[in-house]
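Suppose a colleague, Dr. K., hands you the sequence of a protein chain of 373 amino acids and asks what its three-dimensional shape might be. Before reaching for any lab equipment, you can write down a predicted structure in token form. Begin with the sequence itself:
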Amino acid sequence: MKQPTILILGGYGNTGNLLARFLLQESRASVILAGRNKAKADSAAAELNHSFEGNRASGLALDASDPQALVAAIEGSALLVAASSTAQYAETCARACLSAGVDYFDVQFSAKKVKTLRARSVEIKNSGRCFITEGGFHPGLPAALIRYAATQFDEIHTANVGSVIQIDWAALDIAESTVIEMAGEFSDFDMHFLQHGRWKKARMDIVMDTLKMDFGAPFFEQNCMPMWLEELRPLPAMFPTLKDAGFFVGGFNPVVDNLLLPLLMLIVKIAPQKGLKPAGNLLLWGLKRFSRPPYGTRLKLEAEGLKNGESARLELLLSHEDGYVFTAIPAAAAILQYLDGSIRKPGLFTQGEIVDPKRLLEDMQRMGIVLQA
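The predicted structure, expressed as tokens, is then:
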């Protein structure tokens, strides 16, 4: 039986290369590492082939902004994975996949990208293609964790997920496109969360719309602010007893949080396009200059409800020392469910709503995520 081929845009980048590594480790799929730099793609593929049997990795020079080249590159593949900072090319990628008869998965966080894909949702479903967006850590896991929590109660009432991400930014090679995309997300940063059964937009001038969450040593209690994720949208319909829920994110560091982010948001508001590059460079400078140990990434679920007629509570803490690994592992775990056909169906879905959450957690632990209940 022929094994599937997965083309990864940004395959030699921080997330893409790790994702390729886990897919080669956990499946028999072949991977094509695609990007603009042919030498980097070939070098990364050679390293993977040295680590895994079967000579299943190859490199490819590819510009995601070139529609014809993209269609030609993905023909014959089962899945296109967008793991690079190319969310602005979501329309091009969607058209290419529909033209070539290829499924789609991305690990990009972008409200504009989701809007672009939503506009093609009917066409995607009618074509028989499976599109999975908002994959990885966050977005990707919060809704899956809440769906898992719902299976542990007779009635689920509250489910909040929080994160803390402390990265040694100075040690990373960050592409300019990534910097620009990071800055762009602050231009329309959405702070909705579910309160008393209704979606509410948080107010930044009061502390009552933030959430304190204890992530344990060495991060301890963090003050987290709401951050809207598209995967949260269907949860109230899935679980009518769920009245309070959301995703809440901790800060970067005091200088970035209190001084640079307000300035960055002002820049991108005044100059939505021209301001992206200087705002992104300002953000990256602050991250590299002021981030300090301890480093690590944690995601915590706090849920409450009824079990056997009594009040019950569930807490789960997921952790990994490397934020990029923490993004790659859940994406790989989701793609494993796609590869065996268990979640593949026509339509557009978020990772958080389509995966089997129990299996996802089990596979993530096997690949290195630490889970504490």
